[in-house]
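User: Could you walk me through two proteins back to back? I'd like the raw sequence and the structure tokens for each, with a short line separating them so I can tell where one ends and the next begins.

Assistant: Of course. Protein one, sequence then structure:
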Amino acid sequence: MVSIVVVGPPMSGKTTLCHSLAGMHFQDTPVFNETCSCSFYTMDVNGREWHIWDTPSISSPHEVDRGWTGEDALREATVVVVCHDGHHGSPMPLVRECGVDRCIIALTRGPAAAVDVSYAMEYLATPCSGGVLVPRAVGRADLIAGISMKAGDGLYCLHG
């Protein structure tokens, strides 16, 4: 089983991203409700079960050890998807707290979804990353391929 935890600041698209990964579709206009607890969705990818954890918002890496509801799911996660919508500053402090080697930055909506940040070094490597690059994903196929690579499943191809 692969455990995937989706984290990020308030209104950064975490729940919408979890639904998209799990193959669930929203109505045309999403309704924004605050996520107050952890929940997970399951899906089968390349014959392996994936648990996709939707977590409450986390605005600062310091919240992880201060009673944040997603702490246990984060500790057990194989892959951490850090949502970045371009409205909340750099995602890198949260990436560093969650572990650079298991993170993927998902560019969700707003300015971040329209901008290729692959050339912004802060988004790719951190001083404490030991040279590990942090991949970024735009869209479902990109994200599933990135998670599959991080989980050691090889390259996943999305058909359909």
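----
Protein two, same layout:
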Amino acid sequence: MSDMTFDVLILIARPASGKSEVIHFLKGLAPADRRTRFHVDGLVELDDFPMLWAWFEEDDILERLGHDRLHTTPDRYFKHDILWHVLIERISLEHSKLLRDRPNLYDGHTVLIEFSRGAQHGGYQAAFQHLSEDILRRAAVLYIEVSYAESLRKNRRRYDPERPDSILQHALSDEKMERIYREDDFRVFSAADPAWLAVKGARVPYVVFENEDDVTTDRPDLLARRLEMRLEQLWALRRMA
């Protein structure tokens, strides 16, 4: 572990809760400022959305060519629930390849892992079981907390139909939001301890970033103050691990 920055920062939340905006904010900072105030080094991002979107596009191509879709239905639900866990396994695989090719990856870099999970398919309790031990022993978790109503509001607001594959502008239908993300299990997952998640024998520190007041939208000063405070708390826990 670096003396100043996280090796692995896992950023989780309901859709449209502010994850992408937090990442955008961190990427826009001067490197020295990002390291000293937020304990984040040069960012290497692992996000399951591009993987998921590639499945949609591949299935659309297969269907157009007269073949069966492999991963998703025509209305873009997964054909098999196990695919939610495959995405997390893919994140773990990509992380292992990064370390294989760059053994000194954490000298100057923080790997930032981003995903959302609803309780319907096992939630975070199931998803974290598919993260590798290499990730878990290095990780710290920032959970951005908003209500379902706020997630739904922001999901509607951000949608750009011309850029459905965009990290910042993709969105789900109200029906998908209701079905997949209404129930969020993070509070259940974390109920046993106010600061540590127990996963596969690892103790993973976490903090909650409250965002019901939406400091991640056009409020950079408030975002900076709250994020700095939460990541300072998380860094203190990480150093205790």
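The mean pLDDT is 93.

Let me know if you want the two compared in more detail.
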